[in-house]
Amino acid sequence: MKIYPVYIIAIFLIIPLIYLLRRRNEQNKTQTNYLLIIIFTLLLNNLGYSYSLYNSISLDIYYSFIIRIIHFIFVYKYIASFQKEKPIKPLYLYSPLVFFSALNLINFSGYYIFDNEYLHYTELNSLDLNIETFNGSKDLFIATVFIQLFFILIISKLVKEILRKLVKGKKKFKAYRDWIVLLYLYVLSSSLSLIFSGILLALDLNFTVLFIFTKLLFLLSVIILMLFPKYLSHSISFKHENIRLKSSSDEKNYLRIVDILQKTQMFLNPEKNLSHLAINSKLNSKLIIKLIYDFESLSVVNYLIKLRIKYAKQKIAEGYLYKFSIEALLLESGFKSPQTFYRNFKKFEGITPKEYHNSLR
Fold first, then answer.
1. CA 17 to chain centre
2. What is the pTM of this model?
3. Structural domain boundaries enclosing 132
4. Domain identity same for 90 and 166
């Protein structure tokens, strides 16, 4: 049995999937969910590719590229999550998905835009010149070129805007800038590799230099993928680190809310809610909701729960459970029932209060 490089890539992609699943929590779930879809779709394509090589069969380009379109939709959505501005309208973002599906349906009905030629993409990088990895109509292969160009354009514009803002930020933004650049280089290298491959195949060209360049781009995208784990901790912590770019007035009001909560510890009273916080801070309820979501990526209710969990952790660290029971701790921390306490402790910390207590020993 031959061992192809794509087998190793498929196995390698499982590592970041496990990492993200283990570190997904209430605060980073939006960005983490996007990344999980990005890596899972990439893994799905690699598994299909591996299957075709292993069984010496070719895959339908339609199904493979549909997965790739979903992959780039969520690459865009993930990068867009680094800014407050509203991202591109879903109509435009999902249009390649609709267009490619409609084109396949037209072809299936016996109609073609160019001609009814059926193309077979032969993978020359596999060291076996006879293995056909993808097949499909000429229309679909040409469509892949334009769709890849579309994603390059909208992602390039988005990355440029975000990097411009991050450059103005503090020095600790560097890790996030590096991560965005790395992700963007992956988009460019992998997309251009497919674009040139599609052009060579659709136009039946045999330019050795362009073919080698295409394979070098593919190799570059693989190398970049190997660097992903290095930046995963930054990839899901941008909001958690509380360094999103905001106006000074927003930051001032947010710190005012935090200061009031620290001084009054009103979060320890389960009867206190948003209206009480608005009265104490003299801020509009809608503004409080917006500020807490922008800075903490949490609803007001979940933010108050987070503070209760933090308080409970502090008490445990001080040795509270050596003198009192967990029931006493949860009541003092502002929880009404053991079920609510355990569920939320597990949600925010990933472990139970007892496990946290034992870890401190």
1. 11
2. 0.66
3. 5-235
4. yes
